[in-house]
Design brief:
heterodimer; A: Phage tail protein beta-alpha-beta fold; Maltoporin, Chain A; five-stranded mixed β-sheet; 57% strand; B: five-stranded antiparallel β-sheet; 19 strands; 14% helix
Chain lengths: 872, 358
């Protein structure tokens, strides 16, 4: 009975309590304070995570209301959800309602010309979403749909662009125009740098974007501005021979760099034996350079990728320039054909060394009675491009590049006499590139961009030598011998490909594509024609021409799963079919960036590269005799595996510091074997080669300041590079020729005011490696002529002395253009490029004697140059 | 100078024009080794020069005033023929092939055998020096390949006789026929020479004489002599003087070598019918040479005139080394067997002008 009464009382109390309403009044009060009053009146406990109510304030006004009503009203204006479980009121954060996303896409172009800008970083500061424009200037960003969106675009050499407030109600197309800093008033500072962004934001290691502005400010020999010579200042890039436009990246060979003109391979990239590159700066927009981690799109070379983007031409007005330099002249013009729809761009460059040689030869011939000698060399190149915009989403272009070198040497004896023996030698060499390409870009949807390209790329060289000797009697040729040799060497590529950019998510960008290249190789075919008054013969050699089919496909992406983490990934697959054999290559790519703290980035990456064609190089200068050949027979494609890691720091004053380390393993490298020249010339070139391995490792350190009145960079690289071939150096490993252990570059640019600008660049590096034989042996006198017999020594056994020089340039802007004054090797330190064995005259015991001695060959003293560029 | 040298120098001149040279001594250690040089002829004693290598800056063994001494006089030199030890060579002096009294004549130190190798012998030379270590080399003495016949074509014959009994000029085209043995790879050297001028004081005081005043041998008509020259080198390089070739294009075949001897001026004066005169001849020699001989001469051509050698010579490529078959890499032990054919000039003249030879 007692137990029943107690139960009844408790039930009645509970029922009263439940039935009793809750009265609470609060205005913008801390939630916890209101909870106390509800708990007191309801007897319920609130259960929640400690940080849930941080800063949460509630407003409520209820009288005698039930608990459900109270809770509903109290949390209506918050993101807190509630649930009654027994005697507890559980509080959780209400799931955010799905945010509708919109895609904002468009093109970034230069203001005034409409030139597409590649590699511009476009970002939404509010959501911290960021993307980069592709080669055609296209970008696409997925953003939460909200009003007041503003996009920011940053690019080196251009003022940062900020769009107006956007009010998206669906997908948006927003084209952005950027103003070059040169067109701004002096007090406006450029606060953007793509390389700073690449270093801090992207997962890419060892990448660089070089604008023409940077190239034009780099002091170079004879004032011939050159992208390759600008890249030579980067850490990890060795220049090769003094004054040449060589590039040996991270211990690789010169043929391991893929040079592209609008993504089309170019095989011969030098003029005048490598002194100037084939790229006319005035025809370029900018250059992408990759040396450590490579996008999946690129494969085919082991060491680096250089993609030169050419100018489209202005859609709005005609512009042009004429440049007169010491060694060459340039003429460039671009403008609209149909305003805002079709543009053209033409850049023409020609050297005038041949013209300069005419008076020199004339003077020389005046002092030689019976011998006439004339020599002439010229190079020229032409870039032409037409671009047409069908609509904001559709654009097509056609591009032509033609580069040509021509050497002429004539030597004659007594040809002009009526009665004499005569002898005449003529040599004509012509070599160069032709690239023709056409492409169509189409924005399939705001998230998918497509580019279709068809191209033809040709490198060819022709050497012609004729020698004629005989007798002239009474003006008539009586006896004669004519020996005429023609040698042709060429490579032809027909290329079709399709590339796609897909932005499925604001944190994810995907690139994919496929291509096919039909290669034709003709490595040095020679015909010889011999004729006398009684004999005529024609001999053609048995050089084999090769055709090869190359297919490739790639898939890669850039994914940011966390705000601090960015991952670049990709896979490039290729097939190379030649002579009934099919080689294949799979090149995985992976890189990651982690941002441990504001202003810091840590990166690591791995890349594999595969190379199917290579250049047979006999020397360290670029010669037309250097032939491109494919892998044939039992050869395997060259491959390289590279790991790299780096730490980056930057601040908002424009300074970026990076330290990158790398280790590269190369296989199936191909090199001329020892004594290859003793094999019969008709031996297939593959029989003269030896296949081996190489390693390279090192550290690249760089401090750069990319914006402000004073800009510049200081870099240091440490490198070890070696090779090992069974057929060279007795199979023992040896250092690579350009194993430049230490390399330091300092470059500073000071924009004094709108008229004057000064640039200084200092280079110092460990000397190149060199094979120096010191021991001689006695000539057995078996050959018709005497020769110094050298005892074989280890390959690259000697390091040339430390190399250093300072280059200065000064630019003076005028009303209609600018003067460019430069001093190459300003303090005239002539650097050693080689060592020879010579004799010097010396007075010994009263008699002049020839004393054998080692001599350093030192080249290039101070070279002043001046050029004027007229802009119109 | 090779044509390629001119091109390279033209390019270098087009570079910034000036360079400079400075003497120095590279800080590379190098150790001398033994060098063996020998040209073995079937039927003759073996002579081998044993020297040491020297550092380039040390001096010149051929210097007129201060030659450095590179001869090794105390070496132990053994002759091994067909795998069997034959004898220990003795150190002696020999002339260098020039006539005594001529500026180039000098005595050279050699080690000489008493044994005379035969064609087909495999000869091994081994030299040991306490100071410079050991050097060995092996060569097989080739069989001579006979000249089957020589076709002679006379061009531009001219009889200019006025004062002398004979004063003739002509050009001769030769087709030198031989048959290459089919059994193995053979290497050859072709040489052209003429018999030495002859002067006799005749009893009446007049000086009888017979000599060739000028003669120019044109080897350019024979493609085998340039078979080692690549197409590009034929554009740039000089091949004059090199007449080595292999049988890789003519193996086992009967083949005529085309050689032209131009601008021959032959003077003949024999008032007293000196029987020693009237035998002036052009000698055509086909030498079978060892592979070591062939590759050595070939490498010297490449070093002097080939693209690789020229580029290496100016520091733009690796050096081209003269080929050696000695274990130390220094010296050449070569072998030769010679076949000759004489073309008597008075016979030619007789055919051309009905001149009756004496």
């Amino acid at each position: 009975m007692k137990r029943f009464l107690i139960s009844l009382l408790a039930f009645a109390t509970l029922g009263v309590a439940w039935a009793t309403g809750i009265t609470v009044r609060a205005v913008n009060s801390p939630a916890e304070r209101v909870f106390a009053r509800i708990m007191h009146q309801s007897g319920k406990n609130f259960v929640y995570a400690s940080d849930l109510l941080k800063g949460v304030k509630v407003t409520i006004d209820v009288t005698d209301a039930d608990l459900t009503t109270v809770l509903t009203q109290m949390f209506s204006s918050t993101d807190i959800d509630w649930k009654i479980r027994g005697n507890n009121i559980m509080l959780v954060r209400r799931p955010a309602p799905p945010v509708r996303m919109v895609t904002v896409s468009g093109f970034v172009r230069e203001s005034g010309t409409g030139e597409a800008l590649a590699g511009v970083y476009v970002s939404d500061p509010s959501s911290r979403s960021v993307t980069a424009t592709n080669a055609m200037g296209f970008y696409s960003l997925s953003l939460p749909m909200k009003s007041g969106l503003r996009l920011k675009a940053t690019y080196p050499g251009y003022i940062e662009a900020l769009t107006g407030s956007l009010q998206p109600k669906g997908n948006l197309t927003v084209d952005i125009e950027m103003v070059p800093d040169g067109k701004l008033l002096q007090e406006v500072q450029v606060l953007g740098s793509r390389n700073h962004t690449i270093a801090m934001e992207s997962s890419s290691i060892g990448s660089l974007n070089v604008g023409t502005d940077h190239i034009l400010r780099t002091p170079v020999i004879l004032g011939e501005k050159d992208v390759i010579k600008t890249l030579q200042l980067e850490p990890g890039v060795s220049a090769g021979i003094e004054g040449m436009a060589g590039m040996y990246v991270h211990g690789g060979n010169t043929d391991e760099n893929l040079y592209m003109l609008d993504n089309i391979p170019l095989y011969q990239v030098n003029h005048l034996g490598g002194m100037f590159s084939a790229f006319n700066t005035e025809a370029m927009r900018n250059v992408d350079f990759y040396k450590s981690s490579f996008p999946a799109k690129y494969d085919g070379r082991l060491s680096s990728y250089i993609d030169v983007h050419t100018k489209d031409g202005s859609m709005e007005a005609h512009h042009g320039s004429v440049k007169l330099g010491l060694t060459s002249g340039e003429f460039n013009i671009d403008g609209p054909i149909w305003k805002d729809h079709t543009s053209y761009s033409v850049a023409l460059r020609r050297s005038w060394l041949d013209i300069l040689s005419i008076p020199i030869c004339a003077v020389a011939n005046k002092f030689v009675k019976y011998e006439k000698y004339s020599v002439g060399y010229a190079f020229s190149d032409l870039n032409a491009k037409i671009t047409h915009r069908f609509s904001p989403r559709s654009r097509a272009y056609a591009m032509l590049y033609y580069g040509d070198d021509y050497l002429r040497i004539t030597q004659s004896f007594d040809k002009d006499k009526l009665n004499a023996d005569y002898d005449e030698e003529k040599t004509r060499m012509r070599w160069g590139n032709l690239v023709a390409s056409a492409g169509w870009n189409y924005v399939i949807s705001p998230r998918i961009f497509m580019e279709l390209t068809g191209a033809y790329s040709r490198y060819s060289s022709r050497l012609l030598r004729s020698e004629e000797n005989g007798n002239i009697t009474d003006g008539k040729r009586t006896t004669f011998t004519i020996d005429k040799v023609i040698s042709d060497n060429n490579i032809n590529d027909w290329i079709v490909k399709a590339d796609f950019d897909y932005r499925p998510h604001q944190a994810h960008t995907i690139n994919f594509g496929a291509g096919y290249t039909r290669h034709s190789f003709l490595p040095s075919r020679t015909s010889r024609h011999l004729a006398t008054e009684t004999l005529e013969t024609q001999v053609d050699d048995r050089v084999t021409a090769y055709s090869a089919d190359e297919f490739n496909a790639y898939f890669g992406g850039d994914w940011r799963p966390l705000s601090q983490l960015r991952i670049g990934y990709g896979l490039h697959g290729s097939l190379f079919r030649i002579d009934g054999r099919t080689h294949h290559g799979l090149s995985p790519r992976l890189s990651a960036r982690w941002t441990p703290a504001e202003g810091w980035a840590v990166k690591a990456g791995y890349s594999r590269t595969v190379q199917y064609v290579h250049q047979l190089i006999q020397s360290s200068i670029s010669l037309p005799t250097d032939q491109w050949v494919p892998v044939i027979g039992s050869q395997k494609p060259q491959t390289a595996d590279k790991i790299a890691a780096g730490v980056y720091w930057s601040d908002n004053r424009g300074y970026t510091i990076s330290v990158e380390g790398f280790w590269k393993w190369m296989r199936n490298l191909i090199e001329y074997a020892d004594d290859y020249y003793l094999l019969p010339p008709e031996t297939a070139w593959s029989g003269k080669m030896t296949t081996g391995t190489g390693t390279a490792k090192g550290i690249d350190f760089k401090i750069s300041k990319e914006f402000g009145k004073i800009t510049g960079q200081l870099s240091y690289s440490l490198l070890w590079a070696d090779r090992c071939y069974p057929g060279r150096n007795g199979g023992r490993p040896f250092p690579a020729r350009f194993d430049n252990r230490h390399k330091i570059n300092i470059m500073a640019n000071w924009r004094i005011n709108s008229k004057w600008e000064l640039t200084a660049a200092w280079t110092g590096m460990s000397g190149n490696r060199y094979t120096l034989a010191t021991q001689c042996w006695y000539d057995p006198s078996l050959a018709p002529w005497h020769y110094e017999m050298l005892l074989r020594t280890d390959v690259n056994n000697y390091r040339l002395p430390f190399y250093h020089r300072l280059d200065l340039s000064c630019r003076r802007n005028t009303r209609h253009g600018y003067w460019d004054f430069s001093l190459y090797n300003a303090y005239c330190n002539m650097n050693t490029i080689a060592v020879t064995r010579e004799y010097r005259d010396e007075l010994v015991d009263g008699q002049w004697q020839l004393i054998p001695t080692f001599q350093k060959i030192k080249l290039i003293p101070v070279i002043p140059s001046v050029s004027y560029t007229w802009l119109f | 100078m090779a044509f390629l040298n001119r091109i390279i120098l033209s390019l270098l001149a087009a570079l910034p024009l000036v360079g400079c040279f400075s003497d120095f001594e590279p800080d590379i250690e190098s150790t001398p080794v033994l060098c063996l040089n020998s040209l073995i002829t079937a039927g003759e004693p073996v002579q081998v020069s044993v020297t040491r290598t020297w550092r380039w800056s040390e001096g010149n063994p051929d210097d007129t005033y201060h030659p450095i001494d590179i001869d090794i006089a105390d070496a132990d030199v053994s002759l091994i023929v067909n795998g069997k030890f034959v004898e220990r060579l003795t150190f002696t002096q020999s002339d260098n092939g020039y006539d005594p009294g001529t500026p180039f004549y000098k005595l050279i130190n050699v080690y000489q055998s008493t044994y005379c190798p035969r064609s087909g012998d495999t000869v091994m030379l081994r030299a040991v020096s306490d100071r410079y270590g050991e050097a060995t080399a092996q060569v097989t003495v080739p069989d001579p390949v006979p000249i089957d016949k020589v076709d002679v074509k006379v061009k531009d014959f001219s009889d200019n006789t006025h004062i002398w009994q004979g004063d003739y000029s002509m050009s001769l085209g030769f087709r030198v026929w031989f048959t290459d043995p089919a059994d193995a790879t053979d290497y050859y050297l072709f040489e052209t020479d003429h018999t030495e001028s002859h002067f006799t004081d005749a009893p009446d005081g007049e000086r009888a004489q017979e000599y060739i005043m000028s003669m120019w041998v044109d080897y350019t008509r024979e493609p085998l002599f340039t078979e080692h020259v690549s197409a590009l080198e034929s554009v740039f390089s000089d091949t004059s003087g090199y007449t080595i070739f292999s049988d890789r294009q003519i193996s086992g075949k009967n083949y005529p070598l085309n050689v032209s001897v131009d601008n021959i001026t032959y003077i003949y004066y024999n008032p007293d019918d000196d029987p020693a005169l009237g035998d002036m001849a052009i000698t055509l020699s086909l030498c079978s040479i060892s592979d070591s001989y062939y590759y050595h001469v070939l490498s010297v051509w490449h070093a002097n005139d080939g693209i690789s050698g020229v580029l290496g010579g100016v520091g733009l490529g690796d050096p081209v080394y003269a080929a050696s078959n000695v274990s130390t890499g220094a010296g050449v032990v070569a072998a030769v067997a010679k076949s000759t054919f004489k073309v008597r000039l008075l016979d030619i003249i007789g055919q051309q002008s009905n001149y009756v030879t004496q």
